[in-house]
Each structure stands twice: as C-alpha cells, then as structure tokens.
C-alpha cells in the first residue's frame, strides 16, 4: 500500500509506503551501488542517478485507499524518488573526493532537480543525504537521494511563510539578513569563501547544526554560477572533513538542500524572499553520545539544544582553519 494520507491536525500529508519494509540490509560481501553490481548501476561512472528501487513516491501510483468512514482523505503518492551515487569507490568519504568530482556531483543534482521539476505534479524537489548508522543508513556506499514531492512539505512551508512575512515587513530577505548578522557577530561562523558562508546559527537545535548559505541572493541550486558551485564544493568538502575530526571518528549527519518550490503558482514570487541554503543535522553532541529528538522535540516541536552554539562553533572553526592551512601548505 502506497499513498498519501491527510493529517487534519497538522494540515499536511503523511506518505504511506509499505514497500519500504522490503529494503535490504547490505550483505557484508556485496554492494548494489558498486560499479556493475546492481541491476541499474553501470560498470563505469563518476557520479550517477537512478530511480530508487523502494520509492516512497512514484510517477505510476496505485489508486489510494478509501476510508470507509468518509471522514479522512487520501491521495495518490505521485512523485519521484532517485538515488544519487557519489562515487564508484565503496569506502570513499565525501571530503576525499576531489573538488572537481564534487562539482560533477552538484551538477548532477542540479540537473536532476530540473528534470523532476518538469513533472507538473511535483511541487517540491528535495535533495538530501543521510550518513551513518545513527541516522538509519543501511547502505554505506556514499550516496544521496532526491525526492520530488506532490506537495510542499510542512517545514518548508513554515520557512517560506516566515521568509515572506519578513520580506513584506522589511523588503529584505531573511536569510540575507541572517548572513549579515552572523558575519557581524563572527562567533558562530565556521567557514567562508567568495560565494558561501557556513555557520552554526544562533537558534539551531543541534550542537553542530551547520547552515551553508549562498552569499548572493538566489533560490535554487540551479541558479548557482560555475564559480559558486566550485565554492560550494570546497566548503562542503572542508566542513565534512572537520566533522570527522571532531571526535576522531566517522561523524553521522543528515544534509538537506532547501530551495524554492516548483509548479506552485502560490509561490511564484518566492525568488524575491526565499534563499537557497543547505542544512546539516548531526545527531552527535559528544563522542558517541547522540542528541535524541525525544518527546519535547517530536511531540511538541519544542526544540532544545544541549550546547550553546557559541561553544561548539569555535571548535569546528578551528578544525576547518587547520585543514585549510594544511592543504594550502601542501600545494
């Protein structure tokens, strides 16, 4: 059974995908993401995208379940789920990829976002990566995913509303002003280059919850110039390397791309007030200690951070600075 079910309490859709229970745990001696191993994976590639074998959303949906009471409503789970393979190398870490390779990856993600947006039933295109068993990863081969939703997810809706409200009151982009505030403070910035600034924002609910925000006001990854994509590749490379050095161990995270909706007339003016950025949600608060999203966070959406970001940001910034200095001295 795969469909959308409307939650009248929250005013949003829940995706039902019974087929997801069939996802395999990768055997020790085989990986379907390695070159030529999976039925959809070619024998040679640099980066590669293909349709998820166990999609939550599909362009060929089944008829949805009809609630016998007539009270609840459901809808087709029309959409798209794709897998993005980062590299043919099974054990390579993101930051071990060359800058050129990461640019190829960002180009692929951008191209796939544009392709999914061509389906007029898709309203939001959402690239993301889950890294590490702590966030439920069953396939360790480096990869990400892209979902094309037939609705704008509720968290994005909330961001869009607040960004639009701020724009209407001030004629300023909220994230542009966040960039200005964080750069003025400087205490929470962890990395910066010509096109992007990375900081752990004043309000984040994760001790190491980095935001990577474009300096130029743009609303989609595909709006980035070649120079901006190169700078994004460089800043992602150094941040993910610093993460692994925090506790001298592989550092799990969720990384998500926030960009404007597509095929949604109500958001036709989102270019004015919404701003492309990437958010990291790393669950570790200390070495091997997870910051759980428990009852307050999940049940009430009342987030609590276990550390002041003015304490955590300098630690990460020092690691980033040391990495950059070592790499420059090696050149």
From TrEMBL:
Named cofactor requirement(s): Zn(2+)
Keywords per UniProt: Carbohydrate metabolism, Galactose metabolism, Metal-binding, Nucleotidyltransferase, Transferase, Zinc
GO biological process, one term: galactose catabolic process via UDP-galactose, Leloir pathway
Galactose-1-phosphate uridyl transferase N-terminal domain span: 3-153
This enzyme's EC code(s): 2.7.7.12
Catalytic activity: alpha-D-galactose 1-phosphate + UDP-alpha-D-glucose = alpha-D-glucose 1-phosphate + UDP-alpha-D-galactose
Domain Galactose-1-phosphate uridyl transferase C-terminal: 165-288
Family annotation (Gene3D superfamilies): HIT-like
List of residues binding Zn(2+): 31, 34, 90, 141
UniProt pathway: Carbohydrate metabolism; galactose metabolism
Gene Ontology terms for molecular function: UDP-glucose:hexose-1-phosphate uridylyltransferase activity; zinc ion binding
EC primary class: transferase
Cofactor note: Binds 1 zinc ion per subunit.
InterPro entries in the record: GalP_UDPtransf1, GalP_UDPtransf1_His-AS, GalP_Utransf_C, GalP_Utransf_N, HIT-like_sf
GO cellular component terms attached to this protein's record: cytoplasm
Active-site positions on this chain: 143 (tele-ump-histidine intermediate)
KW Cell division (keyword) present: no
PANTHER family, per the entry: GALACTOSE-1-PHOSPHATE URIDYLYLTRANSFERASE
Family statement: Belongs to the galactose-1-phosphate uridylyltransferase type 1 family.
Name of the protein described by the UniProt record: Galactose-1-phosphate uridylyltransferase
Organism the protein comes from: Veillonella seminalis ACS-216-V-Col6b
